[in-house]
Amino acid sequence: xxxxxxxxxxxxAILVVVALVCVxxxxxxxxxxxxxxxxxxxxxxxxxxxxxxxxxxxxxxxxDPSFPGAILRMFFHDCVVRGCDASVLLDNDDSExxxxxxxNSLRGFEALDxxxxxxxxxxxGVVSCADVLAxxxxxxxxxxxxxxxxxxxxxxxxxxVVSVSAETLTELPGPFSxxxxxxxxxxxxxxxxxxLVVLSGAHSVGKARCGxxxxxLYNFKGTGKPDPSMNPAYVAKLKQLxxxxxxGNRIDMEQRSxxxxxxxxxxxxxQGRGLFESDNALRTTPAGRWLVRVNKNKRVFxxxxxxxMKKVGNIDVLVGNQGQIRTVCNAVNV
Length: 334
Prior knowledge:
Blueprint lengths: L3 H20 L14 E2 L9 H15 L3 H14 L28 H14 L6 H16 L9 E2 L10 H6 L7 H9 L5 H8 L6 E3 L4 H5 L13 H10 L8 E3 L11 H7 L6 H5 L4 H9 L3 H15 L22
Antiparallel strand pairs: 1-2, 3-4
Helix pairs in contact: 1-14, 2-4, 2-5, 3-5, 8-13, 8-14
């Protein structure tokens, strides 16, 4: 039997490995602007900026405990397409909002708009929408994972002026992807296998529409049967929540603790209870299985998730005089 000391040493060793894995290739982060991001970016120009954003996130969380999952997803979807430039927030006839992975799916815009409006009242033209979304993501990590404190989160991003729906299809990893495809998509953004498995853990919080899994439940690859890799009891439960004629139903992505960013997700993946095909993909390779097992430790996952989200927040950022600081987040300045 392992002693308490040996168990602690094992966890410490894993944490060291995780930290090294998560920060390796940091120089491969796409774009160079991230080097100009820094903590406390608005300490002088808008001292209450982070408090104002936090208040809007807490208000939204009190109304809907699944809200953090929506913001974490939106942050990832923003940064992976054109970088962390708030292009996902723009409204136009062909915006990212209208892309298939986002249409009628992304939510949480109202809380971001509230935060931005409050910031404009106090510090007009100072805080970018890209940073509003980035700080909102930081806050939602903490709200969904009580006890987790995210330190040294950076600011300094500026807003893009282009948003194209088709780019969501070419840049975002899909819910039907296998491990090789996922690995390739993440690598394009300077993210490694550990980041892939850790960031998939965001599927422990938030909701999804039934339409995305109906074929997996009722007619997997044209067989007329469920995906055989799924736990049969899990299939039965999902069929109750997602009848064939209800693609618009919203369900919890993780059933046991749906409003917590936690490690139950990884136990579910191991047991065939991952909601998406991409979740199941994590257990189809030796590397994926090992990383799933490692992340079942809460200390490991909490540490690795924050590190991976910081890397996401560095992708192809606009800084300095690039882009603009939008007055409202859904439209470019005229």
